[in-house]
Design goal:
single chain; Immunoglobulin-like; nine-stranded mixed beta sheet; five-stranded antiparallel beta sheet; 30% strand; elongated
């Protein structure tokens, strides 16, 4: 009896044991090759702690899209949404103020979520503030199959809205943040986004510029600035250069003007009394004013070379060229020219000239840089000087190495006394009254090589006058 029972058991195992083994191997293989994957079995889910609800979500290989709702019971502002997974961290700093029960779509770009068809498992961290309160953060979890990318917004809808000037109505028609997605996904309806980004950048730039202006008033900060320069100069000398170029005055004025323009642009942007075309025209005008100020306002000056003692020797040919040009421009007769030459040579013989030059690197508000060379000539006349006289500057046209120096284009007067261009090649002059000393300053708005920096000569002359009566 026992033998028969054992035989029956043995036959059962022989018959069904192979089936059980095959079932185990097959099931294991299916799990191994992820046909039956725990990840696939686990349901898609987006859960965030109380206060913000996750209404909908989509996970793609390179981005995550979340539809979030404010359920906090009061207005809150979301500052940043982060997604953390095995592929790393991706985030989006997109400010959105939501009243209670309002919703918003957030797109978090530049993610490394995996391939289409894989299961995504990650965490969510949201930074937000309630009105008048500190910044808080809440966490959440996200499980989802990774899907092929698709646009949240319709390119056709976005384009038609831009053509018809209806971009501002997109959110009210198609849902909160739709306009933002038109800009982000299709580069359409982006005027306000670009405007906000530009104004934000300008405001940050003005903070930096105002800090730089304050540093130019601080002796210790000035000492730190000049310690990094290759030219050995003192704080007093650097201050003198800044005063000559009117850097502090111009910078402060430009920053104030730009801040006013930014405020005016914001007022135009939010105005309900103007149509879009009028708004755009007004904003563009103010943009151009900001652009000009940023392009022409110096924010820092580096002195790269100092020539503290320029050569003042004068060749007769230079003096003759200056007298000839002045005589011609005054329409002098030969007799009057002879008198003018005699008076000028006598005046020049009583004159001593001291000169110095600085090679400068100028940095402007918009970040561009430019070379310039600042010349300063101090003129002293011995004895009593009565009546008007000219301080003339003869400059080699090839002083920058390009043989193209032009007085109207390349020279800037740096003193209050007006400058007169005698010749474009160039010869320039200043007129002074009854004084025994005068100082002239000007910049050549290009780099002058150190080997040519002595190629400017100062000639002091009388004032050419017509004395001979014509028959």
């Amino acid at each position: 009896m026992n033998n028969k029972s054992g035989q029956t058991t043995s036959e059962f195992l022989m018959t069904y044991g192979w089936v059980i083994i095959v079932l185990i191997v097959t099931t294991g293989s299916l799990f191994y090759f992820k046909v039956f994957s725990i990840d696939r079995i686990f349901p898609d889910k987006c859960f965030i702690s109380a206060g913000i609800s996750c209404l909908d979500f989509s996970v793609e290989s390179s981005r995550v899209i979340l539809s979030l709702k404010n359920t906090h019971g009061e207005t809150l502002t979301i500052h940043e949404v982060k997604v953390l997974s095995d592929g790393g961290l991706c985030s989006e700093k997109q400010e959105a103020t939501l009243e209670n029960n309002d919703r918003n779509v957030f797109t978090i770009p530049s993610c490394n979520n995996g391939n289409v068809g894989q299961k995504f498992k990650g965490g969510i961290k949201i930074s937000y503030t309630l009105e008048g309160k500190l910044t808080h953060s809440i966490d959440g979890t996200l499980f989802a199959n990774i899907v092929a990318g698709s646009a949240v917004s319709s390119q056709e809808i976005c384009l038609n809205s831009e053509i018809s000037g209806q971009c501002s109505n997109l959110n009210s028609i198609y849902g909160w943040n739709y306009k933002y997605m038109c800009c982000k996904e299709h580069n359409i309806c982006c005027l306000e986004e670009r405007l906000d980004a530009y104004l934000s950048a300008i405001q940050e730039e003005m903070k930096t510029a105002r800090s730089a202006a304050n540093n130019l008033q601080d002796p210790k900060a000035l000492q730190d600035i000049i310690s990094e320069m290759s030219a050995g100069i003192s704080v007093e000398e650097y201050n003198s250069t800044l005063e000559t170029l009117k850097v502090r005055e111009s910078l402060s004025s430009a920053v104030n003007a730009i801040e006013v323009l930014v405020e005016e642009i914001l007022n135009v942007k939010t105005s309900s009394y103007e149509d879009n075309a009028t708004k755009i025209a007004s904003i563009n005008t103010k943009f151009n004013q900001i652009k000009d100020l940023r392009n022409t306002t110096v924010v820092s000056v580096a002195i790269t070379h100092l020539e503290s003692k320029l050569s003042v020797d004068l060749a007769d040919s230079i003096t003759g060229s200056v007298i000839d040009e002045l005589s011609a421009s005054a329409g002098l007769s030969e007799a009057d020219k002879a008198v003018f030459k005699q008076e000028s040579e006598m005046l020049q013989s009583k004159t001593t000239v001291k000169g110095k030059a600085q090679s400068l690197l100028l940095t402007f508000l918009n970040g561009r840089t430019a070379n310039a060379t600042l010349f300063e000539k101090e003129v002293n006349i011995s004895g009593i000087q009565e009546g008007e006289f000219y301080v003339n500057e003869f400059i080699d046209k090839n002083i920058t190495g390009g043989n193209d120096l032009n007085a109207s284009i390349d020279l800037t007067n740096r003193i209050a006394t007006p400058i007169t261009i005698v010749a474009e090649d160039p010869i320039i002059r200043w007129s002074f009254g009854s004084t025994q000393s005068a100082t002239v300053k000007y910049t050549i708005d290009k780099n002058v090589p150190s080997g040519k920096i002595n190629s400017t000569k100062t000639v002091v002359t009388a004032v050419p006058r017509q004395r001979t009566a014509y028959a």
